[in-house]
Amino acid sequence: MHEYSIVQGILDAVIPSAQQANANRVLAVRLRIGDMTEVVTESLMFLWDIACEERGELVEGAELVVEEVKPRSACVVCGTEFEHDRLHVRCPKCGSAQTLLLQGRELEITAIDVDV
Amino acid sequence: MSLATIDVSQHILGKNEALAKELRDLYAKHGICVVNLLSGPGAGKTSTILATIEALKDSYHIAVIEGDIASDVDAQKVKEHGAQAVQINTGGLCHLEGAMIKRATEILDLNQTDLIIIENVGNLVCTVDFDLGESFKAMILSVPEGHDKPLKYPGIFQARNVILLNKIDTLPVFDFDTDAFYREIDDLNPNAQIFPISATKHDGMDAWITYLTQRIEEARSVALSE
To answer: Lower CB density within 10 Å: C or N end of chain A?
Structure first.
């Protein structure tokens, strides 16, 4: 259940940003989470409300909006860019193992919606 | 009342990432190679560590940071084998985080350390996303766990370059399809190096020890050249 640490990490980042902007309330927190991380969105949602309540009024009731990011890699040998699942990362065109993951490992807070 | 959107663009585990960077710089300065050792419970992390200490203790100063939910049985064993050991009890938390490693590191004599092995909490999922400032992650799968684990827990078999396949002495009694295992790893982490070993029988340890020695020497030479 490492989602608890993830949720606390989100709030540790969100609360100072909201305070800096003199926000009265955080309405929504927007995340991008890559499919190749070990974060379960459902579990995040479950813990989110509880953690927000613990942290007080500023974040109480804030909505968590998660954009899931599908893995995408580029082949260093033939230049092909391709989407893939978690289990197959070789280049589908030339079979090379020399690929660079372009996206899919995001654990990112992109923005927060606030009431100021 | 008015609505506004604030651009945050931060890593969710930003705090942990910053700590990991701090630790990585500190280890680099002291020329220390740090291995973050991951596996499920019972795959043989402790016996692999003990066999590794046995093989390297005459050449290098070794420290082990032990992460467990409770108890210090592993740290005791490590000390008996002649390495420094720090026990971290996570008290239920399923993984180690940078802050814990930082506190453990403060206890160690870094000037007298060439290699730190972090024995992470036995868990195939939660340990994956937390950077501990390590030089590299190594993952242990043991034969009794089955050859299809990479399909069930792909994350832990990815993003690390070393996979130790332990307890190979039990291959005759378990239904472990070695070819299938190699194929799965080739699909999901084709650049991984696989070392088949039996830590308790000392089989296959030479290749792993040679690899580790190279990494320790690399860490040392980087510190010396600065």
So the answer is: C
Which chain A residue shows the shortest CA-CA distance from B125? A38
Q: Is residue B12 part of a domain?
A: no
pTM of the model: 0.88
Number of Cβ within 10 Å of residue B28's Cβ equals: 17
Asked if A22 and B28 count as a contact pair (C-beta separation under 8 A), the reply is: no
Q: Does B154 touch chain A (CB under 8 A)?
A: yes
Quote the CA–CA distance of B71 and B41 in Å, as a whole number. Answer: 14
Residues of chain A with Cβ-Cβ distance to B9 below 8 Å are: 108-111
Query: Which amino acid does the sequence have at A91?
Result: C
Contact B15/B93 with Cβ under 8 angstroms?
no
pLDDT reported for residue B112: 92
User: Which domain CATH number covers B31?
Assistant: 3.40.50.300
- The domain that holds A35 is classified in CATH as 3.30.2320.80
Identify all chain B residues contacting A18, using CB atoms and an 8 Å cutoff: 6
Residue B2 lies in a domain: no
Mean pLDDT, to the nearest integer, of A83-97?
Answer: 93
ipTM exceeding cut-off 0.85 for this assembly: no
Q: Which residue in A1, A5, A84 has the most chain B C-beta atoms within 10 A of its own C-beta, making it the best mutation to test that interface?
A: A5
Instruction: Indicate the number of domains in chain A.
Output: 1
Residue B187 is part of which domain span?
Answer: 21-221
State the residue range of the domain holding A17: 3-115
Domain tally, chain B: 1
Q: How far is B157 from chain A (nearest CA, A)?
A: 10
Of the CA atoms within 13 Å of residue B162, those in its CB half-sphere come to 20
Question: Between the CA atoms of A6, A11, A13 and A18, what dihedral angle is there, to the nearest 10 degrees?
Answer: 160
pLDDT tens readout for residues B2-25 = 899 999 888 988 889 999 999 999
| Orientation angle between helical segments B14-29 and B98-107, nearest 10 degrees | 30
Query: Is B9 part of any domain?
Result: no
